[in-house]
Amino acid sequence: MKNFFFTFFLSLIGIFSFGQTNYEYNLTEFDSLLHEEIYSVDVAEFQRLELIKFKNETYEGNLTHSVWKTNKKEEQTSIISQRIKIPEKLVEKLITKLKNSGYHKLKDCSEIKNCIKGLDGTTIIFNLFQKELNQSASFWELKSDYYYKTDSVEIPNEVMDARKILKIINNEIDLEKQFQNFISRLPVGIYMFNGIILDKK
């Protein structure tokens, strides 16, 4: 029931924050005088979750969706984006869970034996910013077993750890569902995200 309420809450906010911009959303720049730590998760170029803990023990978070508006020639013309504010208590809860789950120990796929990377598909990047720390770990098609089965390779433990991190987030904020809610409200037109063309009629 709580998750249903939060999903509904996000949906309402999204209606009012929906708008067209001429620029992509930017990552909050870490400031050691203001910030204790910043966690951010990028799903390709179309979704970003940002969780911020400030030095004064307050919290702030947002979820941003973006798609390119395109013409009939599939040329990108502008960006449509939605920025949703996340309740402070939920940000605090998520940061605590991520910290306790070993988020800071995540390794980039390039550093992991038998971790599969590809060109197409979706890459998820886990970022962590703290004083004197700027850490990033990316994973291609993180939720899929297909390529590991095709290559007869056992899924690395580090990939399974990243999946657990993503599950923690999705248990509180269903990222895929939130993005689907966003694109369902787009007006008639042609849009592009992650190499996908969406023609809304």
| Quaternary state of the chains | single chain
Low-confidence stretches: 1-9, 11-24
| Helix content range | 25-40%
Structural class of the secondary structure composition?
alpha+beta
How confident overall, as mean pLDDT?
88
Number of E strands = 9
Biggest sheet overview:
9 strands, antiparallel
Our measurement of the CA-to-CA distance between the termini, rounded to an integer number of angstroms, reads 33 Å
- Radius of gyration over all CA atoms, rounded: 18 Å
- Note the overall shape: globular
How do the SSEs run, as a string of H and E? Answer: HEEEEEHEEHHHEE
Total of DSSP H or I helical runs spanning 4+ residues: 5
Per DSSP, what share of the residues sits in E-state strands of 2 or more residues? Answer: 25-35%
